[in-house]
Amino acid sequence: MSDLQIGLLLIGAAIVAGVLLFNWMQERRFRKQADAAFQAPLGDALMQPGALPREAYRRIEPALQEPDVDTARVSALDAVSEPHLSVDEDVPQIVAAPAPFNEAPAARPAIVKPTAASSVPAQPRPAVPASPAPYDELIEYRIRLGSDGVLASVFSEAFNHARTLGKAVRWNGLPVGAAEWEDIQPWRDVRYQQAVVTMQLADRNGAVQEDQLTALCDLLQAMAQTHGLRIACDDMVDALERAQAIDRFCVDVDVLIGLNVVARGEGAVNLTRIEQAAADSGMVLGVDGVFQLLDSRGEPLYALCNHDAEPFSPEVVDGQTSQGVTLQFDVPRVPDGLKVFDGMVAFGRKLANGVGGILVDDNLRPLTDTGIEKIRTQLMHIYERMEARGVPSGSRRALRLFS
User: Fold this and answer.
1) Distance of CA 3 to the CA centre of its chain
2) Could you tell me where the beta strands, DSSP code E, fall in 152-211?
């Protein structure tokens, strides 16, 4: 290698190092700005500057103060045996109005005129702290937005554009004066004081890519700049590392088990009997021509499909035959998987006995009790790994990752 080539390599390495150093310094500066903007949860009155100390929030029991009355009224009051509180209808009373959600409870008083039904002045209610923002640190990247009250319609353009980014995006907002988060619906007439937008880090198409995270962050930064919102994007390097880790885990446990019912020898199985047995067992025929056994949530436990290209039909034809059928079990998406697997095996054996066939694996080898037990052991190990990782099979998190 010549001196010129070595010199060019050194210059290139120096340029790359300079760019990396510059990016690191920029990211550190922006992170400090974001942390300063979101140092305290927005909308939490107890964390706002100037809020009253904890000792000031004492329980105040209602008390009646005896009004000032003139001499003419004393005689009338003496004639009443029970205690009585009268209020001058013409004199407005001053009571403390409930504090807004994003202010300290020591709000300015409001002048109200009591009615005959309200003889006791209303006491101020302390602000209700907001519930934690919806965010799954294991499988999501987060962007936080804050404002003094932004209309839901502001999110409309970004909401629609985010659908093209290739990963699931969740939009959650905390309405002004509310304590519970909700899904942001841009067509609603509601104002939000906080918003959290998250992108899923992995699914069955693989881990999220840097350009997808960058596109989402840039999209929301442009929106925030246009409408004067505060924004903080989480660290992308950390998110990409988490995405790769969760994707590797998903690849290891993403297993689909198939059991086949085929005819003995060169014959065929009676498809009519199989369709009838599936319907009798509670399986539902989908629009794709596949029978599914569903749980209480409407999620499939296992499926039954035809070996032939033609799917199952709602119209049962007597004497219809097939080369065989397959029972499919999507391991990570099924809760209580071992129990469901045992039920699928029992149903497969029932089908095989009913049509004079045989239960085999994907390599067309007969499934014996030993083979079934070996599969159960493998399933047990998979489910133990999923539990340890915090992704129980069939959980909401599992359904999102394995979609």
Assistant:
1) 58
2) 169-175, 182-183, 191-200, 202-203, 206-207
131-168 b/e with 16+ CB inside 10 Å = b?
eebbbeeebbbbbbbbbeebebebbeebbeebeebbbb
Which pLDDT belongs to residue 34? 54
Residue type at position 79? A
Q: Which of 167, 150, 156 is nearest to 216 (CA)?
A: 167
pLDDT in tens, 130-175: 788 889 999 999 999 999 999 999 999 999 999 999 999 999 999 9
Residue 235 Rama label (left phi>0; alpha psi -120 to 50; beta): beta
DSSP conformation class of 104: -
> Tokens 């296992």 label which residue?
302
Which of these, 241, 245, 229, 242, lies nearest to 197 by C-alpha position?
229
- DSSP conformation letters of 21-39: HHHHHHHHHHHHHHHHHTS
Give the model's confidence band at 252: pLDDT under 50 very low, under 70 low, under 90 confident, else very high: very high
Q: Which residue reads 């004081």 in tokens?
A: 193
Helix (H) or strand (E) holding 273: helix 271-280
User: Per residue in 30-81, pLDDT tens?
Assistant: 566 555 555 444 444 434 444 444 333 333 334 434 444 444 443 443 444 4
CA dist 61 to 67, 71, 99, 116, 123, Å?
19, 31, 18, 22, 9
Which amino acid makes up residue 60? I
Which of 273, 262, 265, 279 minimizes the C-alpha distance to 325? 262
**Structure-model confidence comparison of residues 1 and 156, the more confident one:** 156
Joined together, the tokens standing for residue 396 give: 């909401």
- 326 by DSSP, 3-state: which? strand
Q: How far is CA 339 from CA 103, 336, 369, in A?
A: 53, 6, 16
Domains of the chain and CATH, by start = 97-107+130-252 (3.30.70.600), 254-401 (3.30.1400.10)
- What is the Cα–Cα distance from 381 to 341, expressed in whole angstroms? 14
